[in-house]
Amino acid sequence: MSAFFRRNTEPRERRVTLVRKPGCHLCDDAQLVVEKVCGELGVVWEPRDITEDPDLHDRYWEQIPVVLIDGEQHTFWRVNEERLRRALTG
């Protein structure tokens, strides 16, 4: 989706996916940021376990945690709170 169309999308209409795995401290850190930002903006988010999805495993194994916004990769490894907020509101 182009940036032009995303600007007209309210944050509440966005969807964030956190691709993670159990026992991953970076994933736990990323989840705290995602929960905070999405909670403040009213954005729906979902965690996805890379160990339970072969497609996600093949795509993102070396990058977890991975944050997707509306199905497109936003970031990986470390989640920056302000960058995520801007992506969801801008």
Care to describe what's here?
- The chain has 90 residues and is of the alpha+beta class.
- Helices cover 42% and strands 23% of the residues.
- It is built from four helices and four strands.
- Strand 3 (66-69) and strand 4 (72-76) form a beta hairpin.
- It is globular, with a radius of gyration of 13 Å.
- The relative contact order is 0.24.
List the helices and strands and how they pair.
Elements: H1 3-7, E1 15-20, H2 25-41, E2 44-49, H3 54-60, E3 66-69, E4 72-76, H4 81-89
Parallel strand pairs: 1-2
Antiparallel strand pairs: 1-3, 3-4
Helix pairs in contact: 2-4
Task: Kindly list the characteristics that best describe this protein.
globular; four-stranded mixed β-sheet; about 90 residues; alpha+beta; disordered N terminus
Number of strands: 4
The strand order across the widest sheet is: 2-1-3-4
User: What letter string, H or E per element, gives the SSE order?
Assistant: HEHEHEEH
- CA(first)-CA(last) distance: 14 Å
Helix tally equals: 4
Helix proportion range:
40-55%
Radius of gyration: 13 Å
Low-confidence stretches: 1-6
Shape: globular
Biggest β-sheet description: 4 strands, mixed
- Overall pLDDT score: 91
User: What fraction of the residues are assigned to beta strands by DSSP?
Assistant: 15-25%
The class by helix and strand makeup works out as alpha+beta
